[in-house]
Write a structure and sequence with these properties.
Strand content of chain B: under 5%
CATH architecture of one domain in chain A: 3-Layer(aba) Sandwich
Number of domains of chain B: 1
Mean pLDDT of chain A: 89
Number of strands of chain B: 0
Mean pLDDT of chain B: 92
Strand order of the largest sheet of chain A: 5-6-7-3-8-9
Helix content of chain A: 25-40%
CATH class of one domain in chain A: Alpha Beta
Number of helices of chain A: 10
Largest sheet of chain B: none
Strand content of chain A: 15-25%
Oligomer: heterodimer
Order of helices and strands of chain B: HHHHHHHHHHHH
């Protein structure tokens, strides 16, 4: 039985709109306009234990929304989600104890605390046994090369250092599932490589199920055997990266395949083919 | 204590972090000394100008002690939402709070209590040293921060102080949830302040209001964050009325916690974390 089941997920939200300028502001006082945005229209997929899935799609396609629903932060409007037999948003507390989540654009560590103090705090928040915590902390520190950062306040870390610390923070309670939302955003090449290498090891050696979103296609190329492309809140493709490439090639039979398309080119064409570029 | 472990950890981490802000503590302390001194001088003028035949509900010495207590423990009043919650809402970091396997209300409540007590502690110590010890040594006995009259009142005060922090934290939680609903941390979180200043007894001790208002003032929830504990301290509220005061503090804490929990549950169901 799959570890993660997502069936016909739908979620929309409203954005307030206002005409620009003073007149628009005055009109807005009297009458508010709200526009409905369907972040997810119909998303279904399932994931087996130990799989590593890459989730890609243009900005605003619904990737983050899916991760937020899977991790229990948001409630969908329709559809069914089950992770390890639990419905995330119905059984939030039990569910979140079993998963690790990193949102690349936001920090979960305490800005003013040294990294190690933040880790200790997470140990207590997740009620991790002290001996077990010491083991997993030391392993993570070694694997992510954090030993020299532990005493520094989080605000003084570089983005690459911080991201490594964030990933460690998400794994201190030894979750069996890891959600990574754009973990390589803004990182330099060595940091990206370090993150990729770590995620791969975590998945291969520990059997942790990983679902990651990214805009960096090299992440996908290096990590994921399976890719889901999402656009307009729907699943556009679900398979290997090579199958995407094959699909693009089939659309353009005239193009002589002298050099294989660059990875970004394949994806850009794929988005275009499905009219999935952002409005 | 495995159940309480996350909340104790969240409390102590915040408490220890906030204690580092020495400059803020000293600045706050100086302002509070200044205000306390002005208020007490005004009271002294009133008391000395009134005829000896009037019997005010509190003596000047009790009012002075009440005022210094209020100034020293000003940070234990719910003046606004928890700035950490406001920041989390603005930046979207609130998502991570939703990812912790803890009771969401208790998690924020512990942090609110830590925020208030950590700010109050250094200010209160300085205040005792200056207006308790210092003023007495200089001979301003009647206008100083006096110790409680006896051991029984001291014990009741400790209990009342604990309830005061519990009640204040429950008030702060309502402001926190208000900020989550409106995404506005400034006006919403300060909207309660006019009521708080007047009805808590921070502006004028509630016992000095007209007789016809006394009963209503005593039973309303704000009395529990200033008036009840400080009148217990000075012995102005003793015996049965003191127990009634403690019962009211407990009652309002329970009510506000229940209301806050239900409201938070409702709000979190509709929480939308946008962007990124």
């Amino acid at each position: 039985m799959p570890q993660i089941i997502v069936e016909r997920l739908a979620k929309s939200y409203f954005v307030s709109e206002r005409q620009a300028g003073a007149l628009g502001a005055l009109k807005g006082l009297i009458r508010r306009r709200r526009r409905r945005i369907d972040a997810l229209a119909d998303v279904s997929f399932s994931l087996e234990r130990g799989e590593l899935l890459g989730f890609i799609g243009p900005n605003g396609a619904g990737k983050s929304t899916t991760i937020k629903i899977l991790s229990g932060i948001l409630r969908p409007d329709a559809g069914r989600v089950e992770v390890d037999g639990l419905v995330p948003y119905e059984d939030r507390i039990r569910h979140v104890a079993r998963i690790g989540v990193v949102f690349g654009q936001r920090t979960q560590l305490w800005w003013d605390l040294p990294v190690i103090d933040g880790f200790d705090l997470l140990r207590d928040i997740y009620r991790v046994d002290r001996a077990q915590y010491a083991r997993s902390r030391d392993e993570l520190v070694a694997m992510l090369r954090l030993d020299r950062l532990l005493d520094q306040p989080v605000r003084q870390l570089s983005l690459g250092q911080r991201m490594r610390a964030e990933i460690a923070a998400a794994l201190l309670h030894s979750p069996s599932i890891l959600f990574l939302d754009e973990p390589t955003i803004g990182l330099d090449a060595p940091s990206k490589l370090a993150v990729r290498e770590f995620v791969k090891r975590l998945n291969r050696e520990r059997g942790v199920t990983v679902l990651l979103t990214t805009h960096d296609m090299h992440d996908i190329d290096a990590l994921a055997e399976r890719v889901i492309v999402i656009g307009h809140g729907r699943v556009l493709a679900d398979g290997t990266f090579d199958s995407l490439r094959a699909q693009i090639a089939a659309e353009n039979p005239d193009e002589i395949d002298e050099s294989p398309l660059a990875i970004e080119e394949v994806i850009a064409r794929f988005y275009h083919l499905h009219g999935a570029t952002e409005a | 204590m495995e159940i309480a472990r996350p909340y104790v950890a969240a409390f102590s981490a915040r408490f220890l972090l906030m204690l580092q802000y020495r400059a803020a503590a000293i600045a706050g302390f100086l302002t509070q000394c200044w205000w306390g001194a002005i208020k007490i001088m005004v009271y002294a003028a009133f008391y000395r100008a009134s005829s000896p035949s009037t019997h005010p509900a509190m003596t000047l010495a009790q009012v002075a002690t009440y005022t210094w207590l209020n100034q020293g423990l000003l940070a234990l009043m719910p003046w606004g939402c928890d700035p950490e919650v406001a920041l989390a809402m603005r930046t979207g970091v609130v998502m991570y709070d939703r990812l912790r396997p803890v009771d969401a209300y208790a998690y924020w409540y512990a942090r609110a209590a830590a925020f208030m007590t950590s700010r109050a502690l250094p200010r209160a110590i300085l205040m005792v040293l200056v207006t308790g010890v210092g003023m007495r040594l200089l001979g301003f006995r009647e206008l100083s921060w006096a110790p409680p009259p006896n051991a029984a009142q001291s014990a009741l005060f400790v209990l009342s102080l604990v309830l005061m922090v519990s009640l204040s934290s429950a008030f702060m939680m309502l402001l926190n949830i208000g900020v989550v609903v409106t995404l506005n941390d400034r006006w919403v979180s300060q909207s309660m302040n006019p009521l708080l200043v007047v009805l808590s007894g921070s502006l004028v001790p509630l016992a000095l209001y007209p007789d016809w208002a006394q009963r209503a003032l005593f039973v309303q929830p704000f009395a529990g964050v200033v008036d009840i504990p400080f009148r217990i301290y000075s012995g102005n509220l003793a015996g049965v009325p003191a127990y009634q005061g403690l019962a009211l503090q407990l009652f309002w804490t329970v009510v506000l916690v229940l209301v806050g929990r239900m409201w938070m549950e409702h709000v979190m169901r509709r929480l939308e974390v946008q962007g990124g």
